Amino acid sequence: MVLVEAPERTGEERNAAESVVAALAARFGNRLATARSVREQHGNTTTWIENQPPDAVVFAQATEDVQEVVRLCAKHRVPVIAFGTGTSLEGQVNAPRGGICLDFRDMNRVLEVHAEDLDCVIEPGVTRKQLNEYLRDRGLFFPIDPGADASLGGMAATRASGTNAVRYGTMKDNVLALKAVLANGEVVTTARRAKKSSAGYDLTRLIVGSEGTLGIITELTLKLSGIPEAISSGICPFPSVEAACNATILAIQSGIPVARIELLDALQVRASNNYSKLDLPETPMLLLEFHGSQASVAEQSERFGEIARDLGGGPFDWATRAEDRTRLWQARHDAYWAQCALRPGARALASDVCVPISRLAECVTETQRDIAASGLLGPIVGHVGDGNFHVGVLVDLNDRDEVVRVEAFLERLVDRALAMDGTCTGEHGVGQGKMKYLKAEHGETALDAMRAIKRALDPLDILNPGKIVSL
Amino acid sequence: MVLVEAPERTGEERNAAESVVAALAARFGNRLATARSVREQHGNTTTWIENQPPDAVVFAQATEDVQEVVRLCAKHRVPVIAFGTGTSLEGQVNAPRGGICLDFRDMNRVLEVHAEDLDCVIEPGVTRKQLNEYLRDRGLFFPIDPGADASLGGMAATRASGTNAVRYGTMKDNVLALKAVLANGEVVTTARRAKKSSAGYDLTRLIVGSEGTLGIITELTLKLSGIPEAISSGICPFPSVEAACNATILAIQSGIPVARIELLDALQVRASNNYSKLDLPETPMLLLEFHGSQASVAEQSERFGEIARDLGGGPFDWATRAEDRTRLWQARHDAYWAQCALRPGARALASDVCVPISRLAECVTETQRDIAASGLLGPIVGHVGDGNFHVGVLVDLNDRDEVVRVEAFLERLVDRALAMDGTCTGEHGVGQGKMKYLKAEHGETALDAMRAIKRALDPLDILNPGKIVSL
User: Fold this and answer.
1) Is any Cβ of chain A less than 8 angstroms from the Cβ of B25?
2) In this predicted model, what pLDDT tens digit does every residue of A3-30 receive, in sequence order?
3) What is the CATH number of the domain that holds B15?
4) Which residue among B307, B336, B365 closes a domain?
5) Does any domain span residue A455?
6) Domain carrying residue A144
7) Which ipTM value was assigned to this complex?
8) Residue B151's closest CA among B163, B139, B164, B160?
9) SS3 of A332, please?
10) Do B254 and A114 touch (CB under 8 A)?
11) In 3D, which of B189, B220, B200, B187 has the Cα closest to residue A424?
12) What is the CATH number of the domain that holds B133?
């Protein structure tokens, strides 16, 4: 476990937390949990950052519950941490100073679907798969697909994206409006259902990606897309990462509206071959998906095949049959488990960076060299249309020396991305794990502005303190 | 002229402004202008809001100039107002409390074009047409097209959009990063060139649409698009506004990636027939444009034609020849002049609202009825794919009674849009003209949050005071 510095709580802080827990117990009965196991499940569980459990968990059922908890916590200056499915990767749900975790499991209703407007209104605990199940019969879908079946409240809070982002954007592009409880307990509605507006500051996009530090999301209005008439998927080997990246650049430049374009490096292909019983050549590989009419996906596939061939790649093998598509994307979605299986007993640590696409090949290749030179094993998968990639570096947490080498490697990974005009995280967010990089990425003036905004909206620093920026 | 309440400046305020102007004159020489005519050109000139000129105009040449002006103004608590081309429609560049106008005319260089990354870095005074001229030979374009040949700094500041927004989004979707001078004179860089990021609060989208009240934009990194291989345009009459709106909804629902879909109501068609020497049937009309491959635009056009026919519209007349396209879109772009020509001597006041597309037909139809019942003339054009429309209501500014009727009509227009879950402005922004509607649209909590953010970033209220929110 990697420790995140958390100052010992004062006696006063502990007393305040105890008062709040007692008051909440009286109010919420069995919707409040204080059992150690439940609290630990609500701290960080998905990476190597240590688990820092909250003092209690409240299972909210309505916006009013959230307001009550926030008001009580504000009165006693006790932290409040919003929790969706706990699948964030940078310690976003940890409670380094204790406090109350608000679990949105029970706020999981789809409230409205407006098919003509291509939008819906939901509670924050609805997960992306649940929403898509709900929408399927209406011919609609919500395109953002991080690896986990995350809650949509959490996805908005961390500005998540996934494999469809190259065509459909990220959460910032697909949240039309939010309802959120602010640090003073008031409910803010950030926008109307109109598709665009110039009416004042963009509170929607200020809260998207703020990881529960500026407000707690209790309702979301999301943009939806029509399920395409036709979908075609394909897989294409390349002689090098560079050739695969160049094919991606050309495809996008020439206006092929690719829906998904994912890179697997040779090591990831080996891992996926073993784990998903595939028989792919162990060379850099692109997985693609095209959405459109029958004629349009056929044309897109053919044009991509030509681009690949010109760059020494191919053959581009494409299939529009649903079962072939499923097999292919299942292997992509199982990339993490395939990584873990490469070295039983080790854990794959998912870290992500994002660079301008023109620098991607260079960034991935240098990273591969660094992994090798560090004596590590780290398959790479990338949302290559966005310049975003993930290294699943394998680490034995009991091997202190290896942990140190992995930490140093991750720092170099971020430094490399920043040197190429990139960002320390394309989609996982900051949480606790990436706070230390924000100054290098944004500079002191931007951090000061972020802190000023945080102080303005949460002067007591009760909303998920110790994440993104410290006051 | 419609008066905007501006408290008389105190003697102290006037003295402070005089000191600043004297210091700036010494520093900037003939790059400072105080002539009345120049100052008036830099106040509001494009709507009926009264002209409120600044005390002086500085023609900035570099970010450092802006920092100097802001620091000096901060020291003396004198307002600073950023100015692009002065084409904003709600009094955004007015100086109700005097102060220094920063004109970005001379900061008009395209600094970098990254063709592989589909982005560019520019100074804020570059206009949209200038940028597209510059990009044309590279096969790239910037899609956002408000009516005027506005500066891109101003377009970002007002969160502008235009006819391409249905496919390419608005300024919020096409600004990757900004450099801005904050109220304390420091320069903030809001993001890197990576296409997506989850690294902290979204300062980019906080500044986009903030109309110079949170920071003064001195550099922009913009997303570009490849010029499509083929473009096809068409025009399609409908028996009613409702049928035209329903065709739009169906086209979008069925996944036709329409690039432009513009509504002209029957009165606008009449105005355009007269002004642009066309011979169109005087009935609601959709103008469309499709972007893609040759095969894809042909398919899109055919599919739209079928949808139109099913709804009693058509025939859909489409043309891919550049000169036919130009004639058609020229008429659309001349809509404003066509409106003015309907009633010589009167002025067309452009106001915009935006509603969920399912409510658009109802909103437009009720608005037409209201116009008629008010004894006014007001052609309507709409970016109908976004639910956004403009009424160009004609007013004789010397007719006091008519001015009063128009004001009342505009209030009802906003009330109507808000009642349909819409916004008081889809793309023109707030400025002075729409401040009074923000409370009804967003509620007091959201306005308080906006004010808290404004106070946090501009505690002395020197950046474009009296716009969006009052402290």
Assistant:
1) no
2) 666 678 999 999 999 999 999 999 999 9
3) 3.30.43.10
4) B336
5) no
6) 110-226
7) 0.97
8) B160
9) helix
10) no
11) B200
12) 3.30.465.10
